Amino acid sequence: MHNLLNRANALLAFTLWVMAAVTAACFLSTVFLDYSVPTKLSVKDVKIRNVMDYATDEQQADLATLNFNLNVDFSKLFNWNVKQLFVYLVAEYKTPVNEVNQVVLWDRIVERSERVVMDEIGIKPKYYFLDDGSNLLKHENVTFVLRYNVIPNAGYLRLVQSSDQIVVPFPSTYSTTRRS
Amino acid sequence: MDGMIAMLPAPLQKLSSHIDFQGQKVAERTYQVILTLAGIIGFFVGFWTQQLSYAIFTVMGASAFTALIILPPWPFLFRKNPIVWQTPTEEQETSPDSSEKKDDKKKKETKKTK
């Protein structure tokens, strides 16, 4: 500490220590909070087609199209340790072929900002809803649930499931398009 | 460090930033206290405003403020107890372990060893 560089070094090291401690305290102050939010989700216009699936042995697979309405308020989630949310919609169902099927239909990054309410109707999925086989027809309970990753400023990546989910029965006939 | 000092323009090379021992103790205590307080206050500032950036800025601001206090060798803070060096003595051509020391202000007993 006898010359300027020594003192500057000691000061910088201690500053970094204090910043790390403040960040750790920030993490501890938010780790036990409840991060689940209620959602209003509804799924409409479900149509299934049987399409050529060249990658499989059966060569045919069920492809579902739909659109959905989503109303969810994320405001209570954004505490000082949350940077952004990665939100996605999953369709889960069981078939004779597979015990568990989970298909992600849509996702979005919700960043920290003034207003983080989502109230949209007629949202189209981003990704195909292609079944592993032809077992979506007449399916009685396909469950749609919203899950999200809470991406923190300090800490681990948390996965949360929304407290609401809906069960949708799928149609019993294929829909035809102009081309098929 | 000496190489860096040699690169400075000539008037700056004579500047020294040394401080005495008591000053070093004061400087260390100063930054420890200020930065710890800044950490605690910064945590509450960040928690109240729910912005982690405010907490970090508080700590950084306190660090810059502390740098103004402790980095320059302020005479009124850090040079109040100057180190008293003893005056150099004549070389003695007899036994090297019996050198006499002359003190200006302080008297110290030196034991003569054989």
From TrEMBL, chain A:
Function recorded in the entry: Essential component of the signal peptidase complex (SPC) which catalyzes the cleavage of N-terminal signal sequences from nascent proteins as they are translocated into the lumen of the endoplasmic reticulum. Essential for the SPC catalytic activity, possibly by stabilizing and positioning the active center of the complex close to the lumenal surface.
Top-level taxon in the UniProt lineage: Eukaryota
Listed GO CC annotations: signal peptidase complex
Keyword vocabulary terms for this entry: Endoplasmic reticulum, Membrane, Signal-anchor, Transmembrane, Transmembrane helix
Record localization: Endoplasmic reticulum membrane
Bilayer topology term: Single-pass type II membrane protein
Name of this chain's protein: Signal peptidase complex subunit 3
PANTHER family: MICROSOMAL SIGNAL PEPTIDASE 23 KD SUBUNIT SPC22/23, SIGNAL PEPTIDASE COMPLEX SUBUNIT 3
InterPro entries noted in UniProt: SPC3
GO biological process assignments: protein targeting to ER; signal peptide processing
Family: Belongs to the SPCS3 family.
Organism of derivation: Caenorhabditis remanei (Caenorhabditis vulgaris)
Keyword Hydrolase included in the entry's annotation: no
Pfam families: SPC22 (PF04573)
TrEMBL record, chain B:
Key words, A-Z: Endoplasmic reticulum, Membrane, Transmembrane, Transmembrane helix
Membrane topology: Multi-pass membrane protein
InterPro entries with a match to the protein in the record: Spc1/SPCS1 (IPR009542)
Biological process annotations from GO: protein targeting to ER; signal peptide processing
UniProt-annotated location(s): Endoplasmic reticulum membrane
Keyword Iron-sulfur in annotation: no
GO cellular component: signal peptidase complex
Pfam families the UniProt entry points to: SPC12
Function summary: Component of the signal peptidase complex (SPC) which catalyzes the cleavage of N-terminal signal sequences from nascent proteins as they are translocated into the lumen of the endoplasmic reticulum. Dispensable for SPC enzymatic activity.
Similarity-based family: Belongs to the SPCS1 family.
Protein name listed in UniProt: Signal peptidase complex subunit 1
